Amino acid sequence: PRLLSQFFFADERVTRVVAEINGLDAELDPQQYLVLLNQLHLSQAHLLAILERIMEECIPTQRHSRDYLVKFPEELLVDNLGNHMLFAAECLLAGTFLEVEEADGVQLRPQARNLLCSLELVRTVLREQSLSQPGSYPEPVRAVLVQFDRLFAEFELRW
Known about the structure:
- The protein is mostly helical.
- The protein has one domain (3-158).
- It contains six helices and no strands.
- The chain has helices spanning 3-22, 30-58, 74-78, 81-94, 102-132, 139-158.
- Helix 1 (3-22) packs antiparallel against helix 2 and helix 1 (3-22) packs across helix 5 (102-132).
């Protein structure tokens, strides 16, 4: 029931699905590719939900303000805004996001890169913590969570 244990298994699931996608030829099996993309979306949403709970438990008073969320339609907020933001960041870095003007993309790409690098660092640190001391959040863990929360909020705000 510990959040870090839940995180570990959710992170393993994301890693496994990504490996399956990377090993698949989408042109030869487009149906399986779509199934795996859906599994990736669901597993990332689950991972982000657990990460959100960890941040609420670990750094509740250090969270970045989310007052700007009122600018988003309610159906987007209900449908896991974080997962949409993560997908947008990944698309920006891949250069495949069509709904963004080039000037905005130039400004958003460095933020997207920082956000995704921060997420990878959080995943690494939390995996290590879940294997060594799954019941505690030492200062280095809190520090990477605060940084990730700040970068995620800044990316959402610019969006």
